[in-house]
Design a protein that fits this description.
Layout: H1 8-16, H2 20-31, H3 35-48, E1 56-62, H4 68-81, E2 86-92, H5 105-108, H6 110-113, E3 118-124, H7 136-145, E4 150-154, H8 163-166, E5 171-176, H9 189-194, E6 197-200, H10 207-222, E7 234-237, H11 246-262, H12 265-291, H13 294-309, H14 314-340
Parallel strand pairs: 1-4, 1-5, 2-3, 2-4, 5-6, 6-7
Helix pairs in contact: 1-2, 1-3, 2-3, 2-7, 13-14
């Protein structure tokens, strides 16, 4: 049985009332690529915008096996017990072959998934370069409008592409493992440069290795140019098992926001994020609109095959596609000139 289509006013009122079912449907709406859904999603967002912006937006990433989901569950539960409402946007990698996605975070966060003050939304990243769903920004706004004052964005841990999450959050936390001192164990310089805090997780397993890793990251952070004149990124140790370091991590996140707000950097960063969002959406929409054209859709398979076989190079293929747009514009202009005569 097909669900009833909700009117825009129903969605807006439901989100503002904190209705989880309607919030989920609103997020599905903004993630949809259907043109009619896009129009309604923008209407919803426009009406909800005055109710957004009040949350702590925290990006969380880390190397595979570091325990991101376990950390988020215990950290999120700590926050909800302190009176916060926590939204977790757990972005799973989408298969480039099948388009499928794991979407398993609800099963990995058993306690948080049934917490009345928490909301978990797994979304496929759709192969998007930051490991972040292309509509994660809009999802953050919807969660804020629904009353969530902490939004945690768990990314896929894809190295330098994680810079994308820093463009939509206020604080960027990188989780690492003890023994990472095996020369900074796979962490990329680009991730170090955008980290506000590096937390060595599972420090209970081997405290000595954890301290060694903490020192190594502290040294690495000192030689890098910080992104803010008023905040020096640091490293610490945490344990999702024993809960050690969780209070300190939250205190640092709050301290960071207080400093950024007092120095005027918080508002400036949010403004830059809006600017970046505009250009990201413009590129996305232009590409989507272009590839939907009948002539482009007809030509793409052959051009892709020619590039794969080495018959033509990628630049030539792009120029041929752009030439189609120029030809269409020329035909339109000729038609207007003829009509004017």
């Amino acid at each position: 049985m097909q669900r009833r289509v909700l009117e825009t006013a129903e969605i807006v009122d439901g989100v503002l009332a904190g209705n989880r079912t309607i919030l989920s449907r609103a997020i599905t709406l903004v993630e949809s690529r259907k043109p009619d859904h896009f129009i309604q999603a923008q209407q919803v967002l426009e009406q909800l915008m005055p109710h957004t912006g009040g949350s702590h937006r925290i990006g969380i990433t880390g190397v595979p096996g570091v325990g991101k989901s376990t950390f988020i569950e215990v950290f999120g539960t700590k926050l909800t017990k302190s009176g916060h409402k926590v939204a977790v946007l757990a972005v799973d990698p989408t298969s480039t072959r099948s388009g499928g996605s794991i979407l398993g975070d609800k099963t990995r966060m058993n306690d948080l998934s049934i917490d009345p003050n928490a909301y978990i939304r797994p979304s496929p990243s759709s192969g998007y370069l930051g490991g972040v769903n292309r509509m994660t920004r809009e999802t953050i706004l919807l969660c804020e409008a629904a009353g969530f004052d902490v939004v945690l964005v768990e990314t896929v841990g894809a190295g330098q592409s994680e810079t994308m999450v820093a463009q939509m959050t206020d604080f960027f936390l990188v989780l690492m493992l003890p023994g990472a001192g095996d020369e900074l164990q796979g962490i990329k310089k680009g991730v170090l440069e955008i980290a506000d805090l590096i937390a060595v997780n599972k420090c209970d397993a081997d405290p000595a290795k954890a301290r060694e890793a903490k020192r190594a990251y502290s040294s690495a952070l000192r030689i890098l140019q910080p992104t803010s004149r008023h905040w020096r990124p640091q490293s610490m140790m945490v344990s999702s098992l024993t809960r050690d370091g969780l209070d300190e991590a939250w205190d640092l996140i709050k301290q960071h926001r207080q400093i950024m707000e007092s120095e005027g950097e918080f508002a400036a960063k949010r403004a830059r994020q809006q600017h970046d969002w505009m250009w990201t959406m413009l590129r996305d929409r232009l590409l989507e609109t272009f590839t939907r054209r009948d002539d482009v859709r007809a030509a793409l398979p052959g051009l892709e095959q020619n590039v794969l076989s080495g018959t033509i190079n990628p630049t030539q293929a792009v120029e041929e596609l752009l030439a189609m747009m120029a030809q269409k514009q020329a035909k339109k202009q000729k038609g207007r000139d003829t009509a004017a005569l």
